[in-house]
Design goal:
37% helix; 2 domains; alpha+beta; extended; 3-stranded mixed sheet; disordered N terminus; two-stranded antiparallel sheet; 18% strand; 195 residues
Length: 195
């Protein structure tokens, strides 16, 4: 009797539930396509119009819904490589970073940073103040020289590779191991041949 009552309730619930219509959802999204056009000599081609662009998606033309041809501000982090491999080029690197900062437009924002065996950022946040960014570049270079383990302290001369600190030696350990294993194979081969 209990089985029949349960079955009847389940059957009644199935009959009482109205049929749900399938749901169909569709949507579109606008995909920004940021474009820089250069001529055959690598020069910027300005003042292009909407009609001069065709956007293809899997070979099919897509409608250009919104077209804008004006200068847009950007936000950037300028990271400088202060690692050992760049020691001979630090002045050039800093000069290039300064020139990039000086060419930023008033609405652009930036922050500067550097990496060696550590990652550092100059200044406290993104700014449009180019003088602050240049000062932060100077501070980063000065700070790098003071950090323990930096390229400028406690270095040991390598017979062929300049002066290395502990971090740089560790980075080059695999190369040194391969060199010594190659030397050992060469010696073993010589000894086997002349024994």
């Amino acid at each position: 009797m209990r089985f029949v009552a349960t079955s009847a309730i389940v059957l009644l619930a199935a009959v009482a539930t109205p049929a749900q219509q399938p749901t169909f959802k569709a949507g579109t999204s606008i995909v920004p396509v940021l474009t820089t056009v250069l001529d055959g000599q690598g020069r910027l081609v300005p003042d292009l119009e909407r009609e001069e662009f065709t956007i293809l998606d899997n070979g099919k033309p897509q409608e250009v819904v919104f077209f804008q041809n004006d200068i847009q501000p950007f936000t950037v982090v300028v990271m400088m490589d202060f690692s050992f491999s760049m020691n001979a080029h630090l002045k050039l690197l800093k000069a290039a970073a300064e020139q990039f900062v000086l060419r930023m437009l008033p609405d652009d924002k930036g922050q500067v940073g550097a990496f060696s065996d550590k990652i550092m950022f100059g200044g406290s946040s993104f700014t449009s103040d180019r003088d602050d960014l240049i000062a932060a570049l100077d501070d980063l270079q000065a700070l790098l020289a003071l950090l323990p383990g930096s390229d400028n302290d406690r270095r040991i001369k390598h017979w062929a590779g300049g002066w290395f600190n502990a971090t740089q030696w560790a980075h080059n350990a695999e190369m040194h191991l391969r060199h010594h294993l190659w030397q050992k194979r060469r010696i073993d081969k010589y000894l086997a041949k002349h024994s």
